[in-house]
Each structure stands twice: as structure tokens, then as C-alpha cells.
């Protein structure tokens, strides 16, 4: 199985992973500033990688199984948009 991120799918994954990284750095800064650093910070982002990013990779790899050619792409982009909005919303808190 090869990684099948092409074109806009790659840019959508860059946005998702970039927002995850920024959110992690922001949370790390706040935790260090407050003196409440714990391993839960790392574990929550590892969990998010498993629950949010891994299914996006699975959708991109199942693209060849889609007879219409666009149903899994729509699911991928909606999933990437949902994850991006989740992390943008976390900056408000």
C-alpha cells in the first residue's frame, strides 16, 4: 500500500498537521507557563493522530476502490475540514 496523497489532498493534510502542530506548541507553552506540565499533553495529540489523521490516510488509500472517483474525495475533504475547524476552535479557548 502506497501513500496516495496528491494535489489538493496533500495541501489539506499539510493544513491539518500544521494546525495540530501549532495547537501542540500553544498548549505546551501554556502548560510550561502555568507549571502544570504532564504527559497527558503528548498523549492527547498521539490520540488525535490516531483518531483524526489515520482515517484521512485510510480514505486517501481507498481512493482506487471508489467507482465514482469523487465520493471518497468528498469524505476526505470534509474530514480534513472538520479536523481543521476543531483545531482552529481550540485556539479560541
UniProtKB/TrEMBL annotation:
Top-rank taxon: Bacteria
TM annotation in the entry: 6-29, 41-58, 70-88
Keywords of this entry: Membrane, Transmembrane, Transmembrane helix
Source taxonomy: Bacteria, Bacillati, Bacillota, Bacilli, Bacillales
Protein known as: Uncharacterized protein
Organism: Paenibacillus anseongense
Keyword Transmembrane in record: yes
Amino acid at each position: 500500500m502506497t501513500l496516495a496523497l496528491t494535489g489538493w489532498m496533500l495541501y489539506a493534510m499539510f493544513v491539518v498537521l500544521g494546525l495540530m502542530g501549532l495547537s501542540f506548541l500553544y498548549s505546551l507553552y501554556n502548560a510550561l507557563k502555568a507549571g502544570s506540565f504532564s504527559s497527558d499533553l503528548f498523549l492527547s495529540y498521539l490520540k488525535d493522530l490516531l483518531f483524526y489523521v489515520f482515517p484521512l490516510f485510510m480514505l486517501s488509500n481507498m481512493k482506487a476502490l471508489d467507482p465514482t472517483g469523487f465520493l471518497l474525495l468528498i469524505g476526505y475533504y470534509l474530514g480534513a475540514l472538520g479536523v481543521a475547524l476543531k483545531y482552529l476552535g481550540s485556539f479560541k479557548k
